[in-house]
Amino acid sequence: MTAETFKTPISVLVLIHTADLKVLLIERADKAGFWQSVTGSIEVDDADLRATAIREVKEETGLDAEKYALSDWQFSQTYEIYEHWRYRYAPGVTQNVEHIFGLELPSTLDVELAPNEHVAYEWVDWREAEKRVFSWTNVEAIRRLGERHQLTL
Hints:
Elements: E1 10-18, E2 22-28, E3 35-36, E4 38-41, H1 49-61, E5 69-80, E6 95-105, E7 118-125, H2 126-132, H3 136-148
Parallel strand pairs: 1-6
Antiparallel strand pairs: 1-4, 2-3, 2-7, 5-6
Helix pairs in contact: 2-3
């Protein structure tokens, strides 16, 4: 890999949900049973983290995030990159900073998954979503969604 092809260790997690707190979960194509929210790294063409969130939502679900309520939660988490995904980053990079965004839709919608990235999707209650996602950062984002609506697990 050349330096231009390494992923930047700065990313977004976009928690797509409805007002009644149904959460969109998508299953990874490269890891069966790994459910998550939309995620992705900032790229050279992205103006900022919001642009990254908009791009990733479009790429992974086919949805236009600019048509809905996209909010930067002004919260980020640093995590250790899983060993099996470190080859995507420059040598020595072991941590990623993930910035959390919320995207509220008026109702559950059908999405068009990027088949090379995800193989299935489900809309589930936020409490169920918290139990299904594999990443602790995704769990924390879902908990914060509940807190934003004065709910607890």
